Amino acid sequence: MTERAVNLIGGSLEPSTGAEIPVTSPWTGETIGAVGAGDAAAVDRAVAAARAALPGWAALASTRRARILVRLAGLIEANADELASVISRDNGKTLGDARAELERAREHLEAAATAPALLAGEHVVDVVSGIDATLVREPIGVAAIVAPFNFPIMTGLIYWSWALACGNTVVIKPSEQTPYGGAALGRLFGEAGFPDGVVNVVQGGRAVVEALCDHPDVASVSLVGSSATAAAVYARASAAGKRAQAAGGARNPLVALPDADPDVVASAVTTSSFGMSGQRCLSSSILVTVGSQPALISSVEALARATTVASAPDAAGSPPMISRAAVDAVADVLTKAGDDVLVDGRSAEGPGFVIGPSVVRATVDSPLLTEEIFGPILFVVEVPTLDDAIAFTNASPFGNAASIYTADGAAARAFTSRADVGNIGVNVGVAAPTAQVGFGGRRRSFLGTIHSQGRTAVDFFTDLKSVSARWVG
């Protein structure tokens, strides 16, 4: 083992606790370090540190909290090369994708720094004669954030940046598959100006998540993971009386109408599906053609075959997957698809966890379309009409995102209003909301009542207090 991932508790870095979990490099398949599985004692200490820091942080002017977030954004920019290298080593994404993740992280910090404008309450003078009514927002307390492997820094940051901006303190649990990005970022919190205990990082696996869900001093739990994990965490945290928001898996369709340029659509859907080896919750993993579109399918197949597997972090192409188990899961799907495989990525070669882009023909009732598949595999489905495409989208057990490509404004409007998903793209291959806009998700793709980002994040991370006052004297 070359390096054991660290915790950040009360401002101090310390080795992660518990039995060692090996951390492997997606680029080579070799062990590069270890992370402790974690335990309730480490969680107790982190939550206690966050609880102790809460009064001072909540009392700090919201504009001063915002300035600290902006300083952290600047430090991420100044340390981008080092952080990108850590992300790439941990996660297996290319350096280009890692730098793009950091750029989005900065955007989210800058968006969260606008929270002071959204924290304003309401005041009514003489709501009844002689009585004023005031509605104020207050932080909810200690917020737990469980981050995924695919965006080791950005995705958790989407939640904890807003939690901090609203005056809460946080305990962050990075993925045990990518522990070093969170640890590297943890070293910058003090430099940015966060007081000790405001931000804590506890490494580990399931035991840490369960301890956070159960801990009486944790007010909320935010998680991004598989649908099964999201359901389990949402149920456990809710049963413990906590606010919970749990983003799960996805199978996002991209609908192509006959009037769309086939080359534009092919480029958009393959970039979306095969970028980062399909390990993004907003990847378009199902191409739905309205009517027969052989030119589009041919172009998709050609682009899939032309997409190389990235051989090194600074190379172009589809990078390795996070683990051997992830590769095996995609290979198993291709085996099940049999003769419907149009482009087979199992022949790709490389020293790490490699599988190439694949394209599979399917019918609307294929059970493979309802499985949670996270990898560089694009399914192609043909339906007769736009109504059928919308019905297919709405029948999915997932409801994260969907896109449509068309030059017909009426068709785009119909899809936008009738598609039952949380994030819609119109002539956009990845329907990712900007940092200022709420992030949607429905059915198995999201459990909770309040989403992340923007005003919805402020709603989640604050509680309302109503004050009725009669002034005398």
Overall structural domain count: 2
What is the architecture of the largest domain at the second tier of CATH? Answer: 3-Layer(aba) Sandwich
State the major sheet: 7 strands, mixed
Given the structure, what is the number of helices?
Answer: 15
Helix content: 25-40%
The dominant shape is globular
Mean pLDDT score, rounded?
Answer: 93
Provide the CATH topology of the largest domain: Aldehyde Dehydrogenase, Chain A, domain 1
Beta strand %: 15-25%
Give the distance, in angstroms, between the N- and C-terminal Cα atoms: 72 Å
Contiguous low-pLDDT stretches (5 residues minimum) are none
Radius of gyration: 23 Å
Total strand segments: 22
Keywords: Oxidoreductase
Pfam family, one: Aldedh
Organism: Paractinoplanes lichenicola
Domain Aldehyde dehydrogenase: 17-467
Written account of the structure:
This protein is of the alpha/beta class. It folds into 2 domains: 268 residues, Aldehyde Dehydrogenase, Chain A, domain 1 (3-Layer(aba) Sandwich); 175 residues, 3-Layer(aba) Sandwich (Aldehyde Dehydrogenase, Chain A, domain 2), CATH 3.40.309.10. The protein is 40% helix and 23% strand. The chain has a 7-stranded mixed β-sheet, with helices on both faces. A 6-stranded mixed β-sheet has the order 9-8-7-10-11-21, with helices on both faces. Helix 1 packs across helix 8, helix 3 runs antiparallel to helix 7 and helix 8 runs parallel beside helix 9. It is globular, with a radius of gyration of 23 Å. The protein starts with 5 loop residues before the first strand and ends with a strand.
